[in-house]
Amino acid sequence: MMRWQERWVELSRKNEKVAASSLALRAALASMGAVVCVRLLHLTGGMYALIAAVVVSDAAPEAIRHLGYHRLIGTAVGAILGGTLAMTCGHAIWAVGLAIFLTILVCEFSRFKDAAKVGGYVAGVVVLGYAAAPWRYAWDRFVETAVGIAFAMLLCFVLPVPEPPAKEVAS
User: Fold this and answer.
1) Nearest to 117 by CA among 127, 103, 130, 128
2) Per-residue pLDDT tens over the stretch 92-151
3) Residues in contact with 30: Cβ distance below 8 Å, sequence separation at least 6, in sequence order
4) Residue-wise burial string across 57-66, b where 16 or more C-beta atoms lie within 10 A, e elsewhere
5) Would the pTM of this model clear 0.85, i.e. be above it?
6) What is the DSSP letter of 111?
7) I need a surface site. Which of 27, 76, 87, 115 has the fewest CB within 10 A?
């Protein structure tokens, strides 16, 4: 760790409010970075990158580092199943539910249980929201969500957040 990071961690361990502020700062910076990146890639507005960055930043830093890769795989599963069902079933609400169900099931029965909800979310969005080109829409949702996850993971390394200080028990 760099010197400023060590000082930040030390300060965060001493003060619960600083620890909470660092989580908020990490989520905000990850969201902003993800949206800028998506816009530079000329995708849509960046809403899905923003959502992914905030949701993924909510976990403990160690969990983000470990689960981030799983969530990327879940995002890919959701985009593939969502694209497939969008092509075969269209926008039907039952197809949205089926896409979410199948994606979560695939993730739960594989080694990627922690990716199930993010994957299901992507699958549902793809079926619900595609226009004339479901595979293009699925790809864009995959890229946007992956960018959000990647920025949340990156911020864990740049701005570490330790566990909040333990509260003293009165004796």
Assistant:
1) 103
2) 999 999 999 999 999 999 988 888 999 999 999 999 987 788 999 999 999 999 999 999
3) 53, 54, 56, 57, 148, 151, 152, 154, 155
4) bebebeebee
5) no
6) T
7) 87
